[in-house]
């Protein structure tokens, strides 16, 4: 059995933050990025955890991102709040714009946060969970790199185009869904490639448009949208709402701009916030209580609510720490060296 080393969530966050600082990232950016990376490990989502750290360092070393940019918030008091990330990482920009987004959602019942020119490298659940903690429902979405072919096509056009939704609950974790509109996240295919294992059927096609279980052929070819034409339509919606509508890159443009899919993409992001109390005010009903009726009915049938496995892993990690493999510890040690990427 492989020997594991357990570290606390706080200690791992400090370790990752120290690595980011050593590679030239400013303290606010390092804190925000480290928190998101370690949250992936904490929730046992390996494809969104320490695996993402090297990608953040590579894009910094290539000079294609800023680790010291200061997000600029534009809040004119309307329903749309904008944050210019200045080529920086999305978590710091979300942190900078969150208070204004929450305030505008409470003022108007709904509001939008537009993040411009950012690098998004991880899951979106962080955004909607943060809004749920404020009693707000939330939607978060962004394009990516053109790695996914439309349903019936074979040429990559869409990004994996993640999409997250959160709804607040009383006395429980919020209802949260977070998924790529591709069959799987690209990071999952990369993990299969590193492990030397085949990917499941139906995830991808090769450069000739033929189904493949070879992760190398999949990465060279195209990923597939989940649910066929339905997933393809949702991926298109995200390209339009979080790309074209914002005047930011869509996935094809993001890939052309960076010139390679080996570095994290730069694009925009869209986060929507809704105040359930404002929407239900004239109904005489409690929207949170009504939500519990539905969620309870789902659980009463023995069905598992989305993210429950992740919340269970979180509770265990907070109580017992995060177990890291020898390979993960070696990665942290290697990335701690100034010449790690040479």
From TrEMBL:
Gene3D superfamilies: 1.10.1530.10, Hypothetical oxidoreductase yiak, domain 2 (3.30.1370.60). It holds the Pfam family Ldh_2. Keywords: Oxidoreductase, Plasmid. It comes from the Bacteria. Belongs to the LDH2/MDH2 oxidoreductase family. This is Ldh family oxidoreductase. It comes from Thioclava litoralis.
């Amino acid at each position: 059995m492989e020997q594991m080393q357990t570290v606390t969530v706080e200690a791992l966050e400090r370790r990752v933050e120290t690595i980011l600082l050593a590679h030239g990232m400013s303290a606010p950016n390092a804190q925000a990025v480290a928190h998101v990376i370690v949250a992936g490990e904490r929730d046992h989502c390996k494809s969104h955890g320490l695996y993402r750290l090297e990608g953040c360092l590579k894009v910094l070393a290539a000079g294609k991102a800023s680790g010291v940019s200061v997000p600029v918030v534009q809040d004119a008091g309307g329903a749309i709040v904008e944050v210019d990330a200045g080529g920086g990482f999305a978590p710091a920009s979300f942190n900078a714009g969150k208070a204004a987004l929450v305030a505008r959602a409470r003022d108007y019942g709904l509001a939008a946060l537009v993040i411009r020119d950012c690098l998004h490298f991880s899951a979106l659940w962080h955004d909607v969970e943060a809004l749920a903690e404020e009693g707000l429902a939330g939607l978060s979405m962004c394009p990516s790199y053109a790695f996914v072919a439309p349903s019936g096509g074979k040429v990559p056009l869409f990004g994996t185009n993640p999409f997250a939704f959160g709804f607040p609950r009383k006395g429980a974790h919020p209802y949260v869904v977070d998924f790529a509109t591709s069959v799987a996240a690209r990071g999952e295919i990369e993990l299969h490639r590193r492990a030397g294992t085949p990917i499941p059927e139906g995830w991808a096609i090769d450069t000739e448009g033929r189904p493949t279980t070879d992760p190398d052929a999949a990465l060279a070819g195209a990923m597939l949208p989940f649910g066929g034409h339905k997933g393809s339509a949702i991926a298109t919606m995200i390209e339009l709402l979080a790309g074209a509508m914002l005047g930011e890159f869509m996935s094809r443009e993001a890939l052309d701009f960076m010139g390679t899919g080996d570095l994290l993409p730069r694009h925009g992001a869209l986060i929507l916030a809704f105040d359930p109390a404002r929407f239900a005010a004239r109904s005489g009903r409690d929207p949170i209580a009504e939500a519990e009726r539905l969620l309870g009915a789902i659980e009463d049938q023995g069905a598992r609510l989305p993210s429950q496995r992740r919340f269970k892993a979180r509770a265990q990690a907070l109580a017992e720490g995060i177990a890291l493999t020898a390979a993960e510890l070696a990665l942290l040690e290697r990335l701690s060296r100034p010449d790690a990427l040479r």
